Amino acid sequence: MLDLGRLGFSEEQADLLEVASRFCRERSPISKVRSLMLEETGFDADLWTEIAELGWLGIAIPEAYGGSGLTLAETVPIVEQMGRRLLASPFVPTTLAAQALLAGGTEAQKEAFLPRIAQGARATLALAEPDGDWRLEQMTSLAEERPDGRIALRGEKRFVLDAGAAEILIVSVRHRGEPQLAVLEASDLPAGALRREIVIDETRRSFALSLDGVVISASALCDPARVRAALDHVHLSANLLSAAEMSGGTLAAIEYTVDYAKTRKQFGKLIGSYQAVKHPLVDAYVRYEQARSHLYSAANCFSEQGAGEVAVRMARIQTETIFAHAADRSIQFHGGFGFTYDCDAQLYRRRALWNASQNGDAIYHRRRLASLIF
Amino acid sequence: MTTTADPKDLKAFAADADAWFRENVVADPGFMLPLTFMEVGTDQQFHFLRDWQNKVYEAGYLGASWPKEYGGGGLPQAFQAEATRAMRRHNGPIMLNAIGLNWTGPLLLDMGSEEHRKRFIRGILSAEDIWCQGFSEPENGSDLGNAQTRAVRDGDSFVINGSKIWTTLGRYARYMILLARTDPDASRKYDGLSFFLAPMKIAGVETRPIRKLTGEHGFTQTFFTDARIPANDLIGTEGGGWKVAMRTLEYERGARGGQAGGYVSVDTDAFAVLDLARSMMRDGAPALEDPAIRDRMLDFIMEIQSQTLCRQRLAIEPLNAERPSALPLSSKLIGTEFVRRINEFAVTLTGMKGGYYVGEPEAINAGLWPRAYLNAFSATIGGGTSQIQHNIIGEHVLGLPKS
Question: Mind telling me how many Å the CA of A33 is from chain B's nearest CA?
Fold first, then answer.
């Protein structure tokens, strides 16, 4: 019978869950989340420095490149707790950029960039294009040799997370007809290359990137033999971390609604005593706990051939579906207040819509999963 | 129990168990076996399953982790777990004496007197003493705390009058765990209840079969007319029965461990349903090629995996730290509703032949799926309905106000 994955939990995960749980709760109260929504960069630079000092950026980077040599599984509890507190930071794009380098970078690139990331350099991935297709290997942006031996890029990228604050950008391009990745420094970008996009999740910063006029050296290109595998790895890594974020967000949406149901009275009774409110909340909560079990199974099996992909896609489907539902019901159960900007339910619902739109939605993953299982 | 296993050699025990079940499981007894202990409808089924349980016990693969002095094997829990795994691997029939093995037994080990344990545990394991449960009444089902069956003390006895309903194995049971009202004037209805270990084969106790929605028999209504039961056979205090009943329900719903082992119902195999989706034709192609069928099938595979993972997660304390009771209290709701829905889906998969029923020679899998679907309601209703389970989870896990 096909291996669908199984649970396991490392001591490091347990420690990080405890630390991250406290850190995110204390450092990202909802008032802070809302004030950062108004700021251009969208995150707190001091908090970023603390995150770097905690060593979280180097968790999934091998010791040889300045990291602590654990795996992406150990970042899952951190990202889950960040998601729960809507903590805004470029942690996920930076972590994913490091994964792209590890999987597709040349030795020289890994030596040059991974220690910087582990120390706190912000990085991001520019993979999506204006067609909005989640298939990463179908890029139309181009990398072309110039007579002087340097490489000229052209094309358009979309949904480049936290690009405005990134020092390192990893861009997917077509080179000699094949998918390729190029590692850029922010200084490689001409003025005006970035345009901040208006996105539904106001805790996020996302950018359109024009590659026209970007010229890089040939050494900025990754190892062509490993690029396809690197893109697959990035796709699954992004979905694992997205599932983690959504698991945390789901619990927050449910707890927020439960708190309201315990204090709001109508017809002389707390609304949480009405089964029309209580039972759907229980259903959402029970499904959340199941989705969370899938998340930690995906983390546990992530590096395994076969079971890893199955478990990640399942976790992604389960967390996305329940996050959307829990946040949707959160708006409804807050009644008139739920329709206001001041009610936090909208933060969760917008976050859920954003996450669903990134890295393949549940319908997309269901099709992939079906072909793995059936 | 005859086996004397070395408590240090789990591997050898597991290998012995595997060999024993391979050799002793009867693949086809020549008649349809019940899928759950709630479906024992004929004497033929009853005697077959009673003999089977006794044989498993005598071989040392049931109650292996219960204390030796009462008839158990006295081995660590991991030994019984291995025996149960071997039983499942070789598709052994269910354990018959479910209410004894899973509810009464652990309850006696937990809250019973020494005398009760010595008197009752061995008979529970050997299936010599079949147990039933007297909780629900015709007028009080979900509102168990309102039970009205009366118990009036008279010297060394209590005199019982009233009626209990949905008594699984009622016709065969020698004992009943009985919740009855000893004080009708208690200020809280819950404080007037007591919990008895009541004999069934005595004057004044009568059982009448109830026919289930499947057309079969399997449970009874039990009538008490001046039935005299010993006053000493009570768990907890007089008037303290509600607490004991609640503890019983924790065992019943699987929210608390300590059961004798084995299983009392056959798991619905999502992969057997997948085989069905592959083999049944729909619109000229295997049903699984229909995108709508495929998508629903995928949901069931994910759901069964959810349950497997949640069981594994019980052992990972840091992942349950915030709400430790969440998974135990929700497993009954999730598990029973899943079984109901997947069997319903299986009937759908059989297309036109979903119209056949047990007894029709051309019914798919001898009518297993429609029968399993209809029988599945016994678990979504019994032991506290799914609606009551929602209240329990909402109030005890999420802290929502009482309905």
Answer: 23
Is the residue at A52 inside a domain? Answer: no
Length of chain B (residues): 403
Q: Per-residue pLDDT tens for B163-218?
A: 999 999 999 999 999 999 999 999 999 999 999 999 999 999 999 999 999 888 88
Q: What are A192-239's pLDDT values in tens digits? A: 999 999 999 999 999 999 999 999 999 999 999 999 999 999 999 999
Widest Cα–Cα separation across chain B = 75
Question: Could you give the C-alpha distances from A367 to A360, A364, A372, B270, B298, in angstroms and in order?
Answer: 11, 5, 9, 19, 9
Establish if A212 belongs to a structural domain. Answer: yes
Q: What pLDDT, in 10s, does the model give residues B93-149?
A: 999 999 999 999 999 999 999 999 999 999 999 999 999 999 999 998 888 999 999
**Structural domain span for residue A362:** 228-373
d(CA B225, CA B160): 7
> B252 an active-site residue?
yes
The burial class, CB within 10 Å (0-12 / 13-18 / 19+), for A116 is middle
Assign domain B270-397 one CATH number from 1.20.1250.20, 3.40.640.10, 1.20.140.10, 1.20.210.10: 1.20.140.10
CA nearest to B148, candidates B203, B224, B200: B224
Judged on CB neighbours under 10 Å (0-12, 13-18, 19+), B151 is buried
What top-level class would CATH report for the domain B132-252?
A: mainly beta
CA distance A82 to A99: 19
Q: Could you tell me the CA-to-CA distances from B314 to A20, B318, B351 in Å, in that order?
A: 22, 10, 39
Give A264 to chain B, closest Cα distance, Å.
11
Which ipTM was obtained for this model? 0.94
Instruction: Tell me the CATH number for domain B10-129.
Output: 1.10.540.10
Q: Is B115 exposed, middle or buried (0-12, 13-18, 19+ CB in 10 A)?
A: exposed
Residue A101 in contact with residue A224, Cβ under 8 Å? no
Overall domain count for chain A: 2
Measured between beta carbons, the chain B residues lying within 8 angstroms of A4 are 301, 305, 308
Q: Are residues A189 and A154 part of one domain?
A: yes
Query: What would the two tokens of residue A288 be?
Result: 């959340």
Residue to test with chain A: of B274, B278, B319, B338, most A Cβ within 10 A: B319
